């Protein structure tokens, strides 16, 4: 029997005085909102994009721990036994299935009630090595666009890099906000307010990208890591990846030759590399084709090499780099 249902609304003050409200905690019906670190909701985030959401939405009510430390390439993360053990003590876990296999397995075993998988909060699609080049600018063709890529997502062939599309990232933010409200109903109004503020910021960022990339000399960009399929689709660009969605995979000689032809045909000026993975293949291709190199950050982690201190700043730096490389007018 649920004792709390026997307490009328008008008797709450008296119930507090009698200590009856504490029965809910004894009965295990509290979602650990009173636990955590220093009375805060104890949140574990898998890597930076999930950490940013948790911090922005949680504000002062949460203590966020990130499994992937700054400077670590998240795709290859191996968890320490202490990290795996601490997962079971979290009030809320926020992760993105398909990015980090070791994390996915540990979280599945942790059995934490409030576990949020970002891939369930928006629609995932397939983006491969040559994502975007053959299927035009619309929605059509995406079911097969990833066939040349890697099975590196929450489903075979799907691309997990949803955070690089501000619109999809906002959808994920709303889901994380709802999870925080459920886990800590006492602060639900604050979580809702913070979520709304973040969604507005992401909406403004979307507008900046849409406007900034509307008129360009070319629509094609080459990058070492095929992380930008969602961004390319959102803003009607063509991503050509040297490797697939796995940043450590080696491209074939045939792929490198194909990219040289694409660069010439589509008047590509720049080969992009990222801060957390090797730039060797980008520089090799650039050297063979006479192209420039620049950074396009997939925002899997923030370091002192990042062009900005948080998600919004780095995304704006990415926009600046894309505008320059694509010849924005």
Q: In oligomeric terms, what are we looking at?
A: single chain
Specify the biggest β-sheet.
4 strands, parallel
| Helix-strand makeup class | alpha/beta
Give the radius of gyration: 22 Å
Helix-strand string: HHEHEHEHEHHEHEHEHEH
In percent, how much strand structure appears in the residues?
A: 5-15%
Compute the separation of the termini in Å: 67 Å
How many separate helices? 11
Compile the SSE list and pairings.
Blueprint: H1 12-18, H2 23-26, E1 41-45, H3 48-58, E2 62-66, H4 81-87, E3 92-95, H5 101-110, E4 114-117, H6 166-183, H7 188-212, E5 220-223, H8 229-234, E6 238-241, H9 253-265, E7 270-273, H10 280-289, E8 292-295, H11 311-326
Parallel strand pairs: 1-2, 1-3, 3-4, 5-6, 5-7, 7-8
Describe the structure.
Helix 3 (48-58) packs across helix 7. It is globular, with a radius of gyration of 22 Å. Mean pLDDT is 81; it is low at 1-34 and 129-156. It is 39% helix and 10% strand. It has eleven helices and eight strands. With 329 residues, it is of the alpha/beta class. The chain has a four-stranded parallel beta sheet with strand order 2-1-3-4, sandwiched between helices. Strands 6-5-7-8 form a four-stranded parallel beta sheet, sandwiched between helices.
List keywords for this structure.
single chain; 329 residues; alpha/beta; four-stranded parallel beta sheet; disordered N terminus
